[in-house]
């Protein structure tokens, strides 16, 4: 962002300098806007020119191109404007050198003047502004698709039912309570001991433990020998 702003300012200054240069002397005391555009291709003549038919016209076009490049942040458009300014200035120098025989600057103020230097400086500033601009960034054109979302998650239309709950409905309200299952085991220790009893009381309740002496005494009392 900062580079675009800085480059745009430099480019606009260069375009303004190029346009203003035509109102200064280019060779001896002749202004740049006095040179006709056709003189750049057919040779320099002494005929004067109107403002819009002079070398000012391509410089105004270069300034318009610069504005378009700054608005769209295009380095190539700004570069084109700089090449237009430098190209027309160099073409004028070639034609003027052919007509005058040489392009020099003497102490009396003859030869090349300040307007030519300002035009060349404006073209260089345009190129420098294009170099400083960063241009428009591409909107993920070269970015691979998998970087944005490598593994897309499929949509889950099922509602979240955790923890599982059952809303009361007609079936839940009218269904009878389940009956307790019968204990299939009928052997010893089937009935559990009452609360508070020790684990050994479960078997002694079914099969009481007798003292050894008590068993012998009951055996002797119950035995009756046969009569002879």
Walk me through the topology:
Blueprint: H1 2-21, E1 25-27, E2 30-31, H2 39-42, H3 56-71, H4 75-100, H5 114-132, H6 170-174, H7 201-206, H8 212-222
Antiparallel strand pairs: 1-2
Helix pairs in contact: 1-3, 1-4, 1-5, 3-4, 4-5
List keywords for this structure.
228 residues, mainly alpha, Butyryl-CoA Dehydrogenase, subunit A, domain 3, 8 helices, 47% helix
Task: Provide an overview of this structure.
This protein has a domain at 2-132: Butyryl-CoA Dehydrogenase, subunit A, domain 3, CATH 1.20.140. Residues 193-197 and 201-207 have low confidence and may be disordered. Strand 1 (25-27) and strand 2 (30-31) form a beta hairpin. The chain is mainly alpha-helical and 228 residues long. The chain has a two-stranded antiparallel ribbon. The chain contains eight helices and two strands.
Sketch the topology as an H/E string, one letter per element.
Answer: HEEHHHHHHH
- Gyration radius, to the nearest Å? 56 Å
The number of helical elements comes to 8
User: What structural class results from the helix and strand content?
Assistant: mainly alpha
Parts with pLDDT < 50 across at least 5 consecutive residues: 193-197, 201-207
Helical amount: 40-55%
Q: Into which percentage range does the β-strand content fall?
A: under 5%
Global outline = rod-shaped
> What is the CATH class of the domain at 2-132?
Mainly Alpha
Concise structural overview:
With 228 residues, the protein is mainly alpha-helical.
């Amino acid at each position: 962002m900062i580079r675009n702003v800085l480059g745009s300012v430099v480019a606009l200054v260069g375009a303004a300098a190029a346009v203003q240069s035509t109102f200064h002397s280019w060779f001896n005391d002749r202004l740049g806007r006095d040179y006709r555009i056709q003189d750049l291709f057919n040779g320099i003549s002494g005929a004067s020119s109107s403002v819009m038919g002079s070398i000012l016209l391509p410089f105004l076009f270069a300034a318009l191109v610069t504005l378009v490049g700054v608005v769209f942040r295009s380095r190539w458009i700004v570069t084109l404007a700089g090449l237009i300014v430098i190209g027309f200035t160099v073409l004028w120098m070639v034609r003027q050198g052919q007509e005058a025989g040489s392009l020099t600057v003497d102490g009396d103020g003859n030869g090349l003047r300040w307007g030519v230097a300002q035009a060349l400086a404006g073209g260089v500033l345009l190129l420098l502004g294009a170099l400083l601009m960063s241009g428009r960034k591409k909107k993920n054109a070269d970015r691979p698709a998998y970087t944005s979302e490598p593994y897309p998650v499929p949509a889950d239309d099922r509602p979240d039912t955790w923890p599982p709950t059952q809303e009361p409905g007609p079936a839940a309200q009218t269904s009878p309570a389940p009956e307790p299952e019968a204990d299939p085991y009928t052997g010893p220790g089937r009935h559990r001991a009452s609360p508070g009893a020790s684990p050994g009381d479960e078997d002694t309740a079914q099969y009481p433990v007798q003292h050894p002496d008590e068993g012998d005494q009951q055996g002797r009392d119950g035995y009756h020998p046969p009569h002879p």
